[in-house]
Each structure stands twice: as C-alpha cells, then as structure tokens.
Amino acid sequence: MGNFWEILLNSTRLRMGSLCFEELEALEEIISSGPWYVNGNIVGMDRWKIAFSPSSFKGELDIPLMGRWRITTIYGRKDVYKIRELWNGLEPHISTDGPMVIGGDFNCLLSKEDKKEGRRFLFSMGPKDKRSFMTTNDLHELGYVGPMFTWSNNKKRMDRIMERLDRMIVNSNAININQHLVVKHLPRIASDHCPILLNLFDQLQKKSSIKFEDIWVSYQTSYAVVEKAWKKKDTDSVNNILNYKLKRTFKSLFFWRKAKLKNLNQLKDTLKLEILQLQIKEAEVGPKKKLFVLGTGWASTSFLKYLDTSLYDVRVVSLCNFFAFTTLLPSITCGTVEPSSIVKPIRNIMRKAECYNIDPTNKNVLCRSTIGTNLDGNGEFELGYGYLVVALGAMQNAFNTPGVSEHCHFLKQTLIRSISVWKDVEVSQGIRRSVMNCFQKASLPDLSEEERIKNLHFVVIGSGPTTVEFTIEVHDFLQEDLSRLYPNALEFVRLSLIEAGKHILTLFDKKITQFVEEKFQSDCIDVKTNFKVVKVSGDAITKENSYTGEANVPYGLDVWSTGIGTCRIIFDFLKQIDQNIYALDDCATIAQIKFMEDILSIFRVADKDNSGTLTVKEIKDVLEDIERYPKVALYLKTKQMKDFLDLLEESEGDVMKESVEQDIERFKKALS
C-alpha cells in the first residue's frame, strides 16, 4: 500500500498522526461528500467501511497481500473521564481475528521517560487506564525511529517542554503478519507535533510520487498547467476518467516543478534532515553538567529564570529558602507590607544550608546545615559542581567600628531574619518590634523626661537610597500610626540621621540631594552631616567631627546602614580563584577601566596648550564641568586622591599654589 494512511482526499493529503476533533469532523464531511483516492487509484466504498465518534475515526481497508486491516485514528482528551470514554468506545471495535492499528495523539504518557522538563510525571488514572486498555485488548506499542519526543510547546529555555504524545499500537495479528513494524517520527515542521508514519511494505521498492506543495499556488503558471492537463478529452468509465486526469495532471505538475523549482526539493530535504538531527539531539538525555548556585537574591533568581535546565543539573544552596523582593524591605519594618507579600518560596530546587568554603581544586562546595545542631557530623556535607555561580551578595560594612555588631540593627540582615521566621516569636528581634518596645518603655509612669527622650530617639546611620527610604518609612510610621496609639509620647520623639559626608545621597544629582535634605528639614528629621561614628555602646552613639570633636548621642534604637562589604567566604575565596566559577550581583566587581579613560580624556581637553601638564587652575576649571557626576569625585577619593578637591579649594587666590603643575602620566599613575 506504500505509506500507510496516506490518503488524498479532494487534493488534501492527510497522514496518520495528530488529528484533532475539528479535523475529524472535517474529514467526515470530505469522505461522505465524494470520491477519494488511495495510492493513485479511486477506491470504491466496498473497500472501506467508515465509522466516526467524537474523538476517533475508524475504518477497515483491504491491503494487497495483507488482507483486511482495521484502522483507527484517535485524538485523546486531557480530561481523564473523556479519555476513559474513548477507551470504552473503542473496545467493541477491537479486532480479535485480524490485524488492527490504532494511532494518533493519545495525549497520555506511560512513563517519566516520555517527557522532558515540565511537571513531574505521575502514574495517575490516565496512564493506568491506557495501560489497562492495552493489556485487556492484546494491544502492543511499536518501537520508533527518529526524535524521541513527538510534541513540544515550542517555547525557549526553561519554559520548553517536550513529550511523546503521538503513538501507534497494534494487536498480535498485525505483528504476526509483519514482525518488523517500526513507527517513524518525521521532522516537526511548522507544528507542535511530529507526523508519525508506519510503512507496511518497507522491503518493497517504493515508486517515486509527487506531493502537492502549497508554494505551487503562488506561481500563476501552475494554474495553466493544471487547466491544460485536465481539459484533455478521455473516454472510459467515470472512475477511470478521473484516474486518467489525476495521473496526467500530476505528471504535468511533476515536470513543471522539475523545471521551475528544480532546487526546491533538494533544499527541503536538506532542511528536513537538519531539523530531524536537531530534534534528535534535543531529545537526547545524556549526563548533565552539575551547576550550583549559591544564594537566592535578585541575581541568582534572574539567572535561574533564563537558564536552560535541559543542559544542566541545577542545585541551589542558600540560607533562605525564598526569594525576597528587597525593594520593599524597608516597608516591612513599619508594617506597611506583610512579609508574606514580598517572598517567593523556592524549596523545590534548593538546599537550606550555609556555604562556608569553596574547594576549586576538587570542585566541591563545603556546606553546613542551618537546621538544628543534632545532626551527624554537625550537618556538614560536600557538593560537587561542574560550574559554580556565586551570588551570595554582601554583608554590612561596619568599618571596624567598636560596638556596631553588638548594639546596632543591620537593616537588610535584620529584615531577612524577620521574614524567615515571621510566624515565630523571634520576630520580636526585628526593627518594628524594637520601635514598639521603645514606645512602651517611654510610656512607663516613673520615667524621667530625660529617659523618655532617650528611649524615643531613633538614630539611622548612613545616607544611601535604602537608608533614606527606611528613614521616611519610620517617620511616617511614627507620625501616622504610633502618634494615635501613644499621643502623650509624641512630643518626645526624635528621628536623626548621621552621615560622614557633606551631604546625603552623594551618588545622586545635587538637585535630588538638595530636595531630600529640605524635605527632611521640613519633617523635623535631624540630619547630621560631617559626623563619623567612632563607637556604639548600649545606650549612646559616639560621633566625631573634625571641628567639634567627639559627642555622645543617647538613643533608644539605632539602625546601621552605611553600605556593603565583602563576605568572609568571598574574601577567602579570592586567594584561590579558579575557572568555571562566576560571580553575580554585590559579590562581584567591575574594573572601571573605561571610566578612568573618560576622566583622562577630560583632563587632556583641559590641557589647551598641549604642554603635557596641567596647572591647579586648569584642573579646577575642567572639574567644574564634570561636577554634576558624583561618581567622579567618589572615584577620585578611592584612588589615592582623597584630599585632591580640598587642595583645589585651598589654592583659590594663592598664586603659588595655582601655578603648581601636574604631569598627566603621574596623574594616570595615581588613578591606576
């Protein structure tokens, strides 16, 4: 019969495979409407017996040298009860005395090997019903060649899912007739399903046939070729005349295509072969390289989102079994947002543990469990990796200030600790509870006014964007919420911000800095700039100013948020850095090479006489042009140029100092 189940119906070619319900209805209309064509010959209704049901197309066909075969194409519904109805409806049509083939989109998996990615396979009622149907009716699944999976959702990376949904099953009689039956999975082209093909006469030489191509319709000459061949006169029976016209038309189209589109078939075959090879490679389930990710912050979560998990065996190790939307962390301290609203659990891909060392020589990550202390060996274990992504973030930088770690709240760490145990009594250690405790202490009747002022003095150390946002949240919390609960204590409340620099938000534009400072002043937030915190005790903060000296500031609650520093594990690892290890987010750094080149080019512009040197006055002039970029000043400070700007200010009006020249090469060395 040639290619099994290849039927040309009113110039429409169908192949046994994924016929959906709508296609079955259309097929019923086509078959009942007129003549149909199999292997180049009109077949009378005595050769076929057709029956339809909502999800299946059943028929019987006489095949030369093989007798009468019972053939069924199905489309399985995902609903377990609908597909159970399908199996029950097929049972009366199962052939026990002749060969039978059932094929199509079963929409059902039989094992975990039938899918790649997506939800975990469960041997639930659907697979059990199908297995029972096959066993009861003596049906056997055929082997296949070609790509392993016949369906794909055609998405990319982590969202890509592939499954083997399309199958052919036969009874024992079909296997006895031909013991070498094999299903061929054809390339998946412009569809989410692979066509599947069963060739009953693989050992016979197949005649070359012509296949109608939609692209032919785009050529106007194809209409003339068909019209000329079809209009030729023939005399015979109606069926034979139709056969003659079809054969002649196909033959004319064959030679027209060969002349007009001689390279099209070769190109198509090449593309099909390439697609087939890609699908086979895509379906290969080989050993995946182990990829470990340390941390569950912004960088690691974004990295995991776009990672192709079909290529790597991914594991995550982190102290927190969730991702926190850190932008809203300051709102947690005042109860504006609940902790559950800003966290996303990732328990399914992570191990809750602390990574305390990295062994790049043996490619191991040394971890320690953080759950209890009664585990064997203190809960320590090793995990091997092929690639390692370190996204542990950073720790608060205390600048070795005495008393900070003992008496200060670290904004981010405190918030994360509160979230991780937000249902537990340990939440009392969070900032919000500490604020409430301060008000409750200040409300005690026997306290002096001095003690009330001390308990209700809230101090924030630092002036970055997160610190400023937190200060605003605390201010609103004090003025809008706690003022109603403790109206008598409101007159003693003070909120202060201490910053070592001249202004807050030093990395922002001056207009933004000025606006925030004015806003803080109008809200009675006491901003202390040019003060460096040198010590923190249990009841006072010692601040220092180059002009006024040291001063003690009594407080009820203090929050330290002065920036970030390197984690201990990262600091230790930098001594033995290795390949196949990558850093993301705050634990990574970027060499500012381009930044330095830009600064040097600006200074060259200032050298108007091309002398190769710049006077203090020339440098001052050019710095005025770039003063709006705060990072320039910050970069100069970090590159051994701490007192450079002060030198420029002091030189104003001093002829001797203004005439001092600086060699560009020496300046480049200072910046490097």
From TrEMBL:
It holds the Pfam family Pyr_redox_2. One of its GO terms (molecular function) is calcium ion binding. Residues 594-629 form the EF-hand domain. Coiled coil: none annotated. It comes from the Eukaryota. It is found in: Mitochondrion inner membrane. It catalyses: a ubiquinone + NADH + H(+) = a ubiquinol + NAD(+). Keywords: Calcium, FAD, Flavoprotein, Membrane, Mitochondrion, Mitochondrion inner membrane, NAD, Oxidoreductase, Transit peptide. One of its GO terms (cellular component) is mitochondrial inner membrane. It is a peripheral membrane protein. Belongs to the NADH dehydrogenase family. This is EF-hand domain-containing protein.
